């Protein structure tokens, strides 16, 4: 019954920084989708295996206090991102639950329409400097990038996407996380700011184009 209930939770694709603590270590990581029942978590470090417990400090955009949550690892996989875990929340206090649910409701969407697309595409990241970056993945909530230069967490930025036969796409956001990679580059996550209706329609068209 519990698994059936989890499957009907609205799942929103987003990029949210968090800190995961296990019995052995503390690691900076990121949530790449989120629901009321759990999340998908990416980490460059191995946090454990199925059945292990995590303590999480989750940094929601525009929320000065991190959310404190307990979670259990339900599945694990590896890839070029490091380690990806499917986690289920096992303990949320009332304040954490209300703030988490409000964030998910604000992001909107439904299980059938919120998706994250893996796609390598050269795009521009405009912050204090203009950087040429490579898009790793993108969703309605944000974009994951590989950059040769670092940026500042929570810095406002603009993502400029230009592909043939499509009007330029300009997406405002904030830097959600920055992680150093072994080759000297940086993994950067940008969480989109609230988009105007016309910008959201253009983003939806772009996602349909690359799906």
Descriptive account of the structure:
The protein has helices at residues 2-7, 94-107, 197-210; strands at 12-21, 26-34, 38-43, 53-58, 67-79, 82-91, 117-126, 130-138, 142-147, 156-161, 169-180, 186-192. With 211 residues, it is α+β, with helices and mostly antiparallel strands. It has 3 helices and 12 strands, in the order αββββββαββββββα. Mean pLDDT is 82; it is low at 1-8 and 109-114. The strands form 2 sheets. The chain has a 6-stranded antiparallel beta barrel with strand order 1-2-3-6-5-4. The chain is globular.
Structural topology:
Elements: H1 2-7, E1 12-21, E2 26-34, E3 38-43, E4 53-58, E5 67-79, E6 82-91, H2 94-107, E7 117-126, E8 130-138, E9 142-147, E10 156-161, E11 169-180, E12 186-192, H3 197-210
Antiparallel strand pairs: 1-2, 1-4, 2-3, 3-6, 4-5, 5-6, 7-8, 7-10, 8-9, 9-12, 10-11, 11-12
From the structure above, extract its key features.
Thrombin, subunit H; 16% helix; 3 helices; 2 domains; alpha+beta; 211 residues
CATH superfamily of the largest domain: predicted glycosyltransferase like domains
The backbone outline, from C-alpha atoms, is: globular
The helix fraction, in percent, is 10-25%
Q: Give the strand content.
A: over 45%
For the sheet with most strands, the description reads: 6 strands, antiparallel, barrel
The helix/strand order is HEEEEEEHEEEEEEH
Mean pLDDT: 82
User: Which architecture of the largest domain does the CATH hierarchy give at level 2?
Assistant: Beta Barrel
Which parts are unreliable, with pLDDT below 50 for 5 consecutive residues or more? 1-8, 109-114
Separate helix tally:
3
| Structural class designation | alpha+beta
Radius of gyration: 17 Å
Using DSSP, what is the number of strands?
Answer: 12
The CATH class label of the largest domain is Mainly Beta
- The spatial strand order of the largest sheet comes to 1-2-3-6-5-4
Number of domains: 2
Distance between the termini: 32 Å
The CATH topology name of the largest domain reads: Thrombin, subunit H
